[in-house]
Amino acid sequence: MTDVSERSGVLRRIFASESAAAPGDSHEQVVLCHDRDSGLKAVIAIHSTALGPALGGTRFHPYASEEDAVQDALNLARGMSYKNALAGLDLGGGKAVIIGDPTTVKTEALLRAYGRFVQSLGGRYVTACDVGTYVADMDVIARECDYVTGRSPENGGAGDSSVLTAFGVFQGMLASAQHQWGAPSLAGRRVGVAGIGKVGHYLVDHLVEEGARVVVTDVREEAVDRVRAAHHGVEIEVVADADALIRADLDVYAPCALGGALNELTVPALTATVVCGAANNQLAHLGVEKDLADRGILYAPDYVVNAGGVIQVADEIDGFVFERAKAKAAKIFDTTLEIFARAQADGVPPAVAADRLAERRMADVGRLRSILLPGGRRP
Q1: Do 361 and 85 touch, CB atoms closer than 8 A?
Q2: Could you give the CA distance from residue 211 to residue 184 in angstroms, rounded to a whole number?
Q3: Phi, psi for 376 (deg, rounded to 5)
Q4: Where do the structural domains in the chain lie, given as residue ranges?
Q5: Is 95 a catalytic residue?
Q6: Residue 16: which pLDDT band, with cuts at 50, 70 and 90?
Q7: What are the Glutamate/phenylalanine/leucine/valine/L-tryptophan dehydrogenase C-terminal domain coordinates in residue numbering (predicted)?
């Protein structure tokens, strides 16, 4: 149980007036969800609806404290606003977290209770899969809720969004190679993938097909075994942990597990000259982006390159067409190159250039809601 001072710290962050300096920079709404009988404890954070309903996945994780869960929801929701803006979607940003170990406490009753809380928001928040939740879970949630994406194809959904998430990260990697080495190719490059779960193992597929030399690590031995079995006859190097991977001789480092992988300890140890991965919130705190730039390491902002999944589930809202969604995700290559070019022109790290571009779109397009439409509606 978090103490009073911890809770007041979270409240200060939610209500702090100084956070409102940039367009859409403060969270619009934070909902605490509790159903004692099913054991549900969840947080839904809506960061911005400037561009439309807030779309973002539901993470199911055994947080060390309730404050950690709220902080994660706030960070992830903000990231979704920027991700959706740069992906060209008419959607805002939100995120939800369910507190608990999904392998032991996840039940039909808990998921359906959660679905009712999402439904109570009337469409301000649209959910999808994230760490600890899967397509089958979205099908259960959808039994109580109209605002669910990432459902199974048999239930009218797009299925596993990890497919296009990995594809988008791969496009970002190719763009990074173009900017850093002059050609959009990873053939012969040594690429380290930290986390080969839902997204990472698809990313390995692209890298192997491209002819990259792949190094992987994962806390779960079965994940490593699955990748090796899928690429029988291909040499895939395995290292003990993320620490060892960071220090390995790499061209590209791809964090694909939980956030915070880039910090004051890991950045100085990096051998890779490109960082491009699927994990959300890779920068542990402000200033890390400058540390990377100072070392000559090209950082492809996570919320730019990992947008393929949200592009996929957003396409589901109007009736999913895989080819259409994949074509949109392929544009991550161009967006990533644009951000690198803007960063170079403005003399700022790519993360700063990406933030500026996202904030400009939220402000420019979001302000159109002030134009009143017939019937008194401001859709």
Answers
A1: yes
A2: 13
A3: 75, 20
A4: 4-76+91-155, 162-319+326-350
A5: yes
A6: low
A7: 159-370
Phi, psi (rounded to 5 degrees) for 150: 75, 25
Where does residue 269 rank: exposed (0-12), middle (13-18), buried (19+ CB within 10 A)?
A: exposed
User: Has this prediction a pTM greater than 0.85?
Assistant: yes
d(CA 213, CA 123): 45
For the record, the structure tokens of 352 come out as 């700063």
Per-residue pLDDT tens for 100-141? 999 999 999 999 999 999 999 999 999 999 889 999 999 999
Please spell the DSSP secondary structure of 70-116, one letter per residue. HHHHHHHHHHHHHHHHHTT-S-EEEEEEEES-HHHH--HHHHHHHHH
- What is the torsional sign of CA 95, 97, 103, 107? negative
Q: Identical fold at 4-76+91-155 and 162-319+326-350?
A: yes
Backbone angles phi, psi at 246, to 5 degrees: -60, -35
Q: DSSP E strands: which ranges in the chain?
A: 29-35, 40-48, 54-55, 58-61, 92-99, 125-126, 190-194, 213-217, 237-238, 252-255, 274-275, 298-299
23-79 confidence digits (pLDDT tens): 444 899 999 999 999 999 999 999 999 999 999 999 999 999 999 999 999 989 999
CB 35 within 8 A of CB 113: yes
How many Å apart are CA 150 and CA 148, to the nearest integer? 7
Helix residue ranges, H only, 194-257: 200-210, 221-230, 242-247
Whole-angstrom distance, CA of residue 219 vs CA of residue 235: 20
Phi-psi bin for 258: left (phi > 0), alpha (psi -120 to 50), beta? beta
Q: Decide which of 3.40.800.10, 3.40.50.1450, 3.40.50.10860, 3.30.450.30 is the CATH code for 4-76+91-155.
A: 3.40.50.10860
Q: Could you say which DSSP state residue 56 is in?
A: -
Q: Which of 95, 106, 198, 328 is catalytic?
A: 95
Q: Are 128 and 57 in contact (CB under 8 A)?
A: yes
Q: Which is nearest to 310 in space by CA: 170, 203, 161? A: 161
